Structures are given as structure tokens and as C-alpha cells.
Amino acid sequence: MLGLYAFFYAILHLSVWVVFDHYFTLSTMIEDVLKRPFITMGTISLVLMVPLAITSTKGWIRRMGKRWAQLHRIVYVSAAAAVVHFIWKEKVIIDETLAYAGVFVLLMLIRIVYAIRKRSMRSSV
């Protein structure tokens, strides 16, 4: 559910950008994505979330089997792109950007430690 909430927030964030910053003008949106790296990173993060949101139902999980977990590993890339998007948008490292980056790094370290322990337990058996 957390991933779907993140996707929902990203869609709302995109909607505000489309409506209030660009007034539905596709050419200026494309120009903005190509010209401003922080918007490019946000776009990458959102695009990577689309297949994750689509395949987050029980039916998709059952149909995809092990491939579902492989696909959903791109969440790490999407999250990293979102953090970079936020840091680059601010242009200055402030407490809030450090907090988000720190939480992301901490969660990734926990994930890495967990994966290493799981691998070592499998190899010792």
C-alpha cells in the first residue's frame, strides 16, 4: 500500500505541475523535462512507478509469480530518482532534503544487510 500511496502522491504532484505550471501545454512540458534535470529525474521516477502500480494487485502478483518480485525491484531506482529530484529541485542541501536522503540511504542499507544475511544463510545450508 505504501507504494500505491507514493504513486498517488506522484500523480497529484504531476497534475499540479501540468495544470498550474504549464496549463496543459504539451510542448512546454516536454521542453521543461528536457531542459531541467530535476524534472527529468522526477519524470523517470514516475514512469518507473507506473508498471509497479499496475501490477500491485493480487491477481497480477499471482499471474507474474517470481517475475513480480523481479519487476518490483525497480522501486529502488524509482525511489533514488525521487530523492535526487527533490535534492536537485531545492538546489541547496537543507535539513529536509538531508532527512529524505538519509531515510532512503538507511532503508537501502537495511535492505542490503538483509539480502546479504539471506544469501549467507542459503549458502551455509
In DSSP terms (H or I, runs of 4 or more residues), the helix count works out at 7
Strand content: under 5%
Shape: globular
Low-confidence stretches: none
Order of helices and strands: HHHHHHH
Number of domains: 1
Instruction: Determine Rg (CA atoms, Å).
Output: 17 Å
* Class by alpha and beta content: mainly alpha
Helix content: over 70%
List the helices and strands and how they pair.
Blueprint: H1 2-21, H2 26-35, H3 37-54, H4 58-64, H5 66-71, H6 75-90, H7 95-124
Helix pairs in contact: 1-3, 2-3, 3-6, 6-7
Description:
86% of the residues lie in helices and 0% in strands. It has one domain. It has 125 residues and is mainly α. It is globular. The longest helix has 30 residues, at 95-124. The model has no long low-confidence stretch (mean pLDDT 89). The two termini are 34 Å apart. The chain contains seven helices and no strands.
List keywords for this structure.
125 residues, mainly alpha, 7 helices, globular
In short:
It contains seven helices and no strands.
